[in-house]
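> forwarded from #structure-qc
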């Protein structure tokens, strides 16, 4: 049998050689100086060798323990080499089946999900909310996650007063678990037992001017805006096009057809995932003509004041309205759509 002293004294030679122990265990000493534990055995009449690790990382006692475990598998009619491969495959599968991995896979699917595909802004928001869970359940195999694990994670968000984020994160987690069920990696969605566990956020409505006199006063105030010219033009265009603030901010000159007076918002930018055609009035064309002299002929119609490579920030129009004296309860960037909808409905148009 081998001893630790004999192993330490073994010097490399020009060719690899073996130092035998017992019951098939030996140490292979390589010309490079590396020392590998191997076990020789027979299965189905064929001689095979099983790797048991490297010395000195694996000492003599541990090598013998691994040999004995392999011999136990042989006694049960199992091939130790094949069992080792299966264990590696199970470990790999387990690593791929963590919550974080399946959440990333789910998000990637939703970004390319045909007519149901997330818009870029939605994808960014959802990926962020799911990433918040990674510190608590991200590395856990998805099949091992209990309702209590999820509830603890989302209640951390809730405890910071972020009730809407906590609710949305729980909903997204449920979507990830249901995706795991649909892809045969989980039997059921553990969030189904958590309905009603979180506090409901207070529903907030975007401030909006909803009467004709107030609308006229708002438009006159915008015309007299003395801040950044491009912010003024964005606020002037908003009541003519009735689009979402994100669609307005991300407008690009390539989408504007001055000849046909039409703005085509591509499906990738819309909430409904379909191209959205926005007719442009004579006043809208005049506003865009002025904007083109500032930011055209390519890129964003309303770029950031810092760099033209990015659109105007999502708070720019709101900040402009605050500068005009409107509070968040009175008027917001989202309020232009509500204002248009209310006034047009009341006028019968």
């Amino acid at each position: 049998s081998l001893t630790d002293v004999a192993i330490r004294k073994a010097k490399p030679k020009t060719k690899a050689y073996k130092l035998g122990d017992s019951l098939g265990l030996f140490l292979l000493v390589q010309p490079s100086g590396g020392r590998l534990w191997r076990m020789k055995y027979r299965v189905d009449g064929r001689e095979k060798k099983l790797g048991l690790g490297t010395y000195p990382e694996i000492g003599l006692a541990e090598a013998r323990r691994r040999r004995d475990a392999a011999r136990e598998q042989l006694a049960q009619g199992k091939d130790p080499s094949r069992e080792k491969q299966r264990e590696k495959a199970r470990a790999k599968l387990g690593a791929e089946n963590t919550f974080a991995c399946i959440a990333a896979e789910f998000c990637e699917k939703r970004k390319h999900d045909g007519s149901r595909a997330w818009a870029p802004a939605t994808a960014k928001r959802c990926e962020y909310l799911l990433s918040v869970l990674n510190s608590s359940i991200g590395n856990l195999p998805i099949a091992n996650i209990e309702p209590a694990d999820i509830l603890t994670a989302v209640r951390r968000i809730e405890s910071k007063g972020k009730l809407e984020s906590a609710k949305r994160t729980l909903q997204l987690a449920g979507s990830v678990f249901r995706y795991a069920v649909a892809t045969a990696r989980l039997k059921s969605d553990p969030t189904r037992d958590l309905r009603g566990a979180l506090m409901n956020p207070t529903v907030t409505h975007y401030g909006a001017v909803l009467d004709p006199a107030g609308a006229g006063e708002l438009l006159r105030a915008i015309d007299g805006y003395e801040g950044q010219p491009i912010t003024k033009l964005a606020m002037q265009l908003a009541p003519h096009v009735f689009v979402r603030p994100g669609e307005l901010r991300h407008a690009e000159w390539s989408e504007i057809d001055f000849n046909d007076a039409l703005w085509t918002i591509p499906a990738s930018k819309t909430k409904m995932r379909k191209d959205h055609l926005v007719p442009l009035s004579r006043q809208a064309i005049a506003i865009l003509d002025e904007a083109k002299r500032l930011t055209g002929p390519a890129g964003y119609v309303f770029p950031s004041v810092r760099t033209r490579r990015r659109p105007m920030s999502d708070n720019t129009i709101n900040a402009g309205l605050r500068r005009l004296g409107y509070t968040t309860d009175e008027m917001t960037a989202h309020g232009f759509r509500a204002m248009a909808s209310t006034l047009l409905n009341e006028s019968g148009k």
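QC bot note: The CA atoms of residues 3 and 94 lie 38 Å apart. The mean pLDDT is 90.
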